[in-house]
Queue: 4 jobs
Job 1
Amino acid sequence: MKKLIIAIAVITAIQTSIAQENKGTFSGGFESNSQWYLDDSGLVEENPNGFEAPQDQLRSNNYFTLRYSYDKFTAGVQYELFAPNPLLGYFQGFQGNGIGTYYLNFKHENLDITGGHFYDQFGSGLIYRSWEDRQLGIDNSIRGVRIKYDFTDYLNATAFSGNQRVGFEISEGTVTGVNTELDLSTALDIETGIQLGASYVNRYQEYTGPNDNFPAAVGAYSLRGDVSFDKFFIGAEWVYKEPDAYVESNTPSNTNLQDGRAILINTGYATKGLGINGTFRAIDNMTFYSEREAAGNSFLLNTINFIPGYTKQQDYAVTNIYVYNPQAAVIPVEGKAGEIGGQIDVYYTAKKESLLGGKYGTKFEMNYARWSGLDTTFDLSNNTYENSLISFGDKYFEEYSLAIKKRFSRRLSAIFTAVHTEYDGQVIEGKDFYLEGNAFVIDALYKFNNGKSMRFDIQHLGANADRGNWAASTLEYSFSPYLSVYATDLYNYEKTDIHYFSAGGSYTKGRTRVALNYGRQRGGLICVGGVCRFVPPNSGLSMNISTNF
Amino acid sequence: MKKILVIALLFSCTLGIAQTSLPEISLKDLSGKEIPLATLSEDKTIVVSLWATWCVPCIRELDTIAEVYEDLQEEMNFELVAISVDDARSTRRVKPAVMGKGWEYTVLLDPNNDVRRHLGNPNVPLTLILKNGKIVFRHSSFTPGAEDQLFEEFKQIAGE
């Protein structure tokens, strides 16, 4: 409380001085996500008695950010309040309140220095990425010092060192990194785009065990290059991680060390009306944590690098039940040492007045994704394994999706979606099933006069395993660009007979948005940007407020 | 509860001097060229939309505006700059998506979300109207029909 009063005093003082001199600017935001959990005897997804609300029925995650810039300096702070406990499914280390992140940045000409918490990434993030996602409950910013220097307009370098944020604490291990990027096309003044990059990232954590050869410091190296010419582009990234201890149930093995490797290739073709993108990635023992003991934790704490699932982010309730969650961890007893796979996206627009295009043109979006384990031989008694980075083991996941976006008149448009999914429940969720499913969705939108509109969808997933078939429907009505209401139901009609209904509305005005929802939430993986978090099934009333200034 | 009130109070006392411009940084366009944000609305009015390939309402908004973009350019010098907040996972999808959809907008990439953080971490889509570098209109979320209001606002602001 005292801190807050001081903060208010400081802000008021700064504000007064700014008002007088008219210098510097403030920006910031406030976001509050609250839920009032309610007992629900009908939600028998995990518990035959239904969902039982936790003792703290009302829970709230709140984030208040403030940033002030003056001349070459920018200072920022994020105050967080999780009261009395974080929402269900979030890391308990967030309980309570405090200053989550803070920083001071100085930027002048070619120099950029930050002290405090910072977010950054090298390359695609396969070697290092620190980021924040409030929906996933992730904030793995690094608290320390970061310096970036532009030597010329085509050569820059970044160096940092610090400890990673873990709830309201910081990691025991220290993370240090250097990165350099060279833009050859600017340097040589040529048309073909050529960008090169190289990075080194090190995790140092003290070791007091018996093995003299045990690495307290583990480094990782990455090299990458991107080339683009005319309508084609291709990029590749290679990462090697030095041998690190094998960790089982939070206990590092003293004798069992293994190195890690990864390769990522991205290529595509883009011209007006047609875009194609292909991504391929293979990873072997590539998880990288700022604390050894954190290996495999379910809240994605202490993650130094970023290994998202490269699959299409689906848009509907029934297409989001069986979503691929990347399998980066080494778990010999489960036969896992990494994964290999990729995806292809095709975007195509059929022109107006063409055969497929009709009067308004038609948009097509196709995606194919497939992921498998690496073909690996395990020595279970020693928890070791052998494999090749480019080898295909069991199939974990495969998906074909097609979306067609079509306008029928000035008022009516629709999206037709079809998805075929194959999903290994054993590998991805640890449940005993292998599923094949076909989903179909029709999503229609009708625009009335004066900014009023109505959206209606019907969805079906036919699946041969787990909970079988699902159906869903949504009706959404917008009174104006500011106010809309919706009602939706996702119904597992084959096995559990559970309706996951919910209804709500949102009001947006300028910088502020308020949303209210009442209903049930299906348990399972909630995935944002290819990164997934497990949430328990629950029921209740939720309110989200966000505003920015 | 008390704390929430305090936060609300903190918030209200900063409202008076809110952020009114984009950060002074450069972002890459789809050909890899660095574009300083400060130059975007020099001596003119533009619309800036923060969007992502995975955001359904964002795509709806940009698809809707794309249908009438050429007409609007002629009618009222309408110009839209689409800043993608796609991160490391999906930023490579942006170029094929934009080209495949045939959008004529200037598209910039903000994979580290610097612009978004500068604006206080808003949800996307976030639509801004900038005049001579100053943010004069701001709306988040998109429902069909909102585009008509945006065009009205643009016309009024550009004409002032």
Note: Chain A touches chain B through 95 residues (CB under 8 Å).
Job 2
Amino acid sequence: MAQPYLPVLPLIAKYPFVSLTAPFLQYEYGNIDSIFSSEKELDVEAKKLGKEIVGAVIDGMRVEVRYPQASFMCTSCDEKCFECEAILAKNFYLCSACGKCFESCVHEVSEEIYRNWRMLARRNAVAYISSRVIVSQLEPWVRRKYAVREADRYSELIREEEEGVIKLISADLGVRANFGRSVRVHVTSYLRCAARIKSDNWRLVNRKLEKGWIELDRDDFLRLLKEKLREKLEEPLEYDALKECASELSARAAMQKREVKDLGEVDVSCFPPCMKKILSDLQHGVNVPHTARFAITSFLLNIGLNTNEIITLFSSAPDFDEEKTRYQVEHIAGAKGTEYSCPACDTMRTYHNCYAECRVSHPISYYEICKRRKEEKSKGERSKNEGRRGKSEGERGRDKANPGDS
Amino acid sequence: MERTRIYLMRKFSEYYANTKLEMPREFRRREFAFVPLENLPSFVMHRHIAFESEEQFKAYILNTIPAHIYYSSAYYQHPDADRMDDKSWMRADLIFDIDADHLPVKTRTIESALKVAKKEISRLVKILQEDFGIGRKDMQIVFSGGRGYHLHVYSEDFALLGSPERREIVDYLLINKPLNAESTQWLRTCRCVVKSLIMEVKRDNLEKYRLTEKQRERLIQMLNKETVRKAAGGDLGIFKGVGKRVESMINTLVERCKTKLAVHIDAPVTADTKRLIRLPGSLHGKTGLKVTPVDELENFDPLTDAIVFGDEKVKVRTLSKVRIRMAGEDVRIPAGEKVLVPEYLAVFLLCRGMALYGH
């Protein structure tokens, strides 16, 4: 008896984000509506699992997902099952995920195993789609956290896989790579992931780059894949379904959500070195490049100054032109509709506006952390006699920990 | 002033009427921007303009007579939307700008500035080929018509990169804060440091770095095969412990080598995925020179090959001293002189504000 999709059922159950999930679900359900409208026990359970996955993200818990303990089966199969280069040459990374070959697989396992695998693949695939649909209806921070945590979970599994599966997943995620003793990744694929990894050794200038390819060891390559996966999971999947689940979770998320802290009164002594320098250059009539003017203005706006206060700060500059300054500040403040945020340290560095090693990744973080420390210190002094205090709730900056941990 | 402007408008208009400009690829997806000559010297930019056809584009130019024409490196769904957010960015050519004013070498004449810029752009081409694997046929080098060169990369892979990714490319080219790692740029830097160190020893230059007698001896002793191999292999740590002055000498050499090896591109141009850049084939309104695509960099002479106007004599009155070599001829004119000069030079001087039209 034919057992459609047999060889990829374990793969789909384990990694439902692969593009083969789409033809499989198409085969099983026909269309996406019938997934969400289905009231079969299996499907209802699957959607519940999807909701649990998102719930676990919100609560910071782990969720256990069951999948078959079997590998991708085509790697060890000699059947000439289908006219397809990817399958015949076992170059699975060339697979275009049409799914046709898997519909007509001639390999067989016992009916019981097949049924179990198919059930797990269906359940996990539906749970995956549901979790993405639900999370896309929640606030962006939930979606970001979902992407990070789920990418972590999958990447732990991928770590244990043999090369064939890693190749397949890498190709599926659109990472251009050549596999040999080490992995060579094309610079464009590399940049699209690495530009988001905050660590100096991931900067392009610190890599070996030859004819457009970058050599990575296995660990670094897996880290890169994880980043790519995170990016994929963060993409919104907008679909008009599972509204109730979403609104229930949204309430839960709102309780978890920490309030964004006001920066309080402006304290120039807490400005990062770059901003201090730009401000002092401006006030002393030193010629300041456009990128630096933009940086200081957006920084001041972001920490809560208004246009007039900023203009007053700038007005001691010898070349001060109030009208021009007002126009520019208002533009950055969003008069034209786009509100700009202060550039991150990486950007500051690129434009040679960074003058120190502060070990934060964003000028605003530096300011927030400094302010918080001062507050805690003064609080500490005031409450010396009240005994020990719990740590204030909410390390809510962009950099969670102290400068130095980033 | 008025006569000068009218003359320039006539000349620019003649050029655009008689020239078939090559449209940038997929021009329907690009934003265009123009600075009309008419409003000069105030720089008024008309932007967020898109064209459906070449005829429409040509009609617009002949109607406006622009001093400067720009187009977007980006491809948009709606290139003519007024707000950047409404344009729907699709992708953007990777572009580089090498401007003599951003180079570490300061020059006095425009000729030597352009020579330095040309060297820099050919270094850029080499590194893009060797390190980034970009084929020469996917690059277009363009003389900007002013004080530098632009390089456009046409590659689907690179076109999809966002701004943070492009900034990584910028940092790579500028060798911006490298770690001591076995990376291409750091190894390059170290090889250069070792070479310069050996040169300084050979030239007996160590005194310049105020090394003590003892330090000098130690350093010379150290320069054997083993340490040279180590240092060139990225480990400059071997010079630690020889003395503070040796360390500071090595640091000086590192900085010098970085400056020498870096390709000094204008960072924001490359990092910006929505940049406006001069249209190849158009005229640069501050020189009257053509923004010229360059096929063979080696033999390209900007102050000859980018000239589009003739050598018919034109009356001008100089406002400042003129010293330039154009079209292979040296020109020296004092300020405040009434002279007859070839048309191309007249346009150049008028555009630069170094002369007025008529006597």
Note: Residues 6-173+224-253 of chain A form one domain.
Job 3
Amino acid sequence: MATRFYSWLLLFSVLCAMALLAGASGRQSNSQTAQHSSTAANNQDALGEKKFRTYCGRCHNAPQQLSPAIAGSVLRHMRVRAMLTREDEQQILRYLAP
Amino acid sequence: MRLLIRWAALIVAVCGMPSWAQDAPLISGGVGLVSTTNGGATFLQPIIAPVGVLPLGDHFLVESRADLRGFIARSGGTTGPYEGEFFANLEYLQLDYLADSKLTLTVGRFLTPFNIYNERYTPIWIRNLQDVPLIFPIGTRTTGSSDGVMARGVIAGHPSWQLNYAAYFSASSTTEQFASGRSAGFRTGVYVPNARFEIGISYQRFLQNGHYNASGAYLQWQPWVAPFKLRGEYAHSPSGQGYWLEAAYRLAKTQDADTWLGKLQPVFRMQQFFRNSAISGDLLPATNTQQADFGLNYYLPHEVRLNASYSRQFSGIGDRNIWNVAITYRFLLPLARGAQ
């Protein structure tokens, strides 16, 4: 039983290594993205998007459609769930419902 | 059925309210159909898990989530006619007072904040694999929910790191839909936003049917350079100890890629549980168990996701295969008009 399990463990390690290698290969294109983002650092939308990916994207993707009428409610809900600060909540709200 | 009626009454009442600016009440959640074959026995679970959110002023929030599911299986396990049962479970119904970033006070029924799986990954449209980890019952007895009070927030914040916490006390309850164990505990973690890396610990003192401690640790990492997610937990109790570690990789440069390949997400999870002494009702595997889970998610348009997974479980009482196929849909709707 243990031998078979450690076979799975080896496979898992290989998968992790592949993922990290893929990440490294994508670093060049991501650095271009980062450069582009830095030029828009003063833009509140860019900041809000980064905050969204930082906090909300830990668990789930962005909703494909979001009614402006409930954007504040969604953020209040996530402020409790994801333990956002008030500042983070406002920045993400400006991104989701400008 | 009574839970359904209460939810329907709440929706009707809220729909009649006046319009809001950006904080209208909403209903969200997931709908899904999960087919599982575990050791040769197949069962189907149609699931609706609605979430209701009602902001009250600038500082108060009412939130609730229910889990309504059918369980359709052969009467004899692998033989006999299919029979169905219906289960309704109220997972949380809480009133939050958001004092400031450092403190949110919660009263009512809430998800027990032990490690991160229970609070963050239980929604069927979020979890990468439909089966919960083997160690999930540790720290979440008796139902995964607690009835009592909780304080949580970001106790210390810095642009490069945040120290968050959640501390709670729960009373014992056997009331239908509000069952919980008497316990107290806390969770605290450090989150590094620039690396999207979080690590933390949990502790629970279970205060009924013999007092004992449960402790745990967790980590989560989502590097910026690749759509890769790594999550894991370790938990220990007198019943035993174990861990799970899950890796998911979206085959795209970004999380929102629209190519057919970019919508694919392979998932792998490894788990081990080591049994110590048996405690009645601990819901953990009876013997030492190891499991490897392979999953494949496909993100369709309109918040629909397909899941398929295969698990091989190695246990002292026999090895087995577990297959899961699921389709889930996430919905998010206002329950009242927004201001014009």
Note: Chain B has a mean pLDDT of 90.
Job 4
Amino acid sequence: MQQLKSIIPTVVTVVMFSLLCSKALAMDPEVMAKKVLCHTCLVKIYVAQQNVKDATTEFNELLKLTPNDASVHFDYGNFLARNSKADLAVGQFKLAAKLKPNVPEYQVGLGNSLMYSKDYNGAIAAYNKACLLGGKYQDLLQKAQQYEAQQKLYEQYQAKIKAQKESE
Amino acid sequence: MHRSYSFKSLYSLICFSILLFGQSVSAIDNTGSTGSITITRHANEAAKAFAAGDYAKAKDEYRKAIGLSPDNLEFYYGLYDVCVHSGEWDQVVYALKRIFEIDPSKKQPLLAQYGEALYHLGQYDEAVPVLKQALKEADLPAPKISMVVPAPVPDPVPDKNAATPKANQANNTTPSALANLPPPPPPRPVLSAKEVSEFALSFQNATHSECILIAEYLGYDKHAEVHYTHPPIANYHITKILKGPPLNKDLPLRYEFTDRINDTQAPPGWKFGTDKMPQKGSEWIIFIKNALPREGAFDTYQGSYGRQPATEENLNKLYALLENSANR
């Protein structure tokens, strides 16, 4: 009990100090808005100029400022997918879909990037969600189902060959 | 007794009219911060149009206000906000550039907006360094600037009930208090039609145009049919802009043959020919009331009066007037 009493002032001080620090570090909303505006414009310029390196840097800067902006994650995901980085794009689309689960386009983005990564089951789930949210993406869903079926057949065929080789 | 009563009533009547007159003058002459009724009216019309979502009208009104008061930052802020909403980024860049010219201290806090406008115009090479500079300076302390169109001021509506308490107030005012009231202004003289036309057709009035420039006559559009009331489109080349926005050097003007006051009807036997047009290569002072083209051409101030030969005498007169208006 005595020990607990001696700890309390220290805990209070630490809590107060961290509160003060977080206030001091919080950015002025106007400065924040200005920085977001600048980075957004720079991102769009570099994307238009197909300057992948600078666009990636600017996307990362923008995401540092707005980590909870689903549209930025979605745009970054599209940018990565267009530049043959589907694996990295999946992460961004997942974040966008997590932050705004009711946007069918985000689910489609996720589905497309999963198709490129050959995760057809995941793609079917994402397209399904997009259709349930009211989007007309049945053709994409059908295609993913066909790919998935094809993949299963291929796996069965591979297993059969393997079994034959073993029996021989 | 009867005489003193009528004197009192007359006295009250005079005081009442003084109060009412003062009231009506202050209601009409609501000059706002601009010091001019016309300019305030344009600014207010712009704010109303903006609130109604009519961005084209709001822009026109701000341009008119800017033409009359080219150094008023408020109007450029308004023009900026309107054009951001309408997506007219060239106008946004123009508004911001003028703001920076008038008050260079505004450049630092508005760099991001300038970069954004350049980006939208597709001027990437210019936009990138501006945006990077804005990012560098974003953390520096900067004054807060409200770049939004202010709420419109409602028009003064005459209140029928308002006269009654005022009248009572006037009647109840003691003579000693009334003695401190300023005397009513003398009635304004009524101008004759000739005096009105003389004032309208004067350099003094023409210098209030939004745009004044010196231009060289190049020729006119010969494809269109020309009448006295259907003037040709004349082509000029701007050699110097004395007042107003930076227009394109190639200036199409509606070449009116009337000054809209004296010679509104075609003179008997009037027929269009090249003799009605100026000599090619001649220099002219052009007054443009609103620096916005209408159907592909600009209208000059009071039709034919808005084109004056660029003689030394005319130029001296104009420069003196412009200098006076700048010093005011």
Note: Helices of chain A lie at 2-25, 29-48, 52-65, 70-82, 86-99, 104-116, 120-132, 138-167.
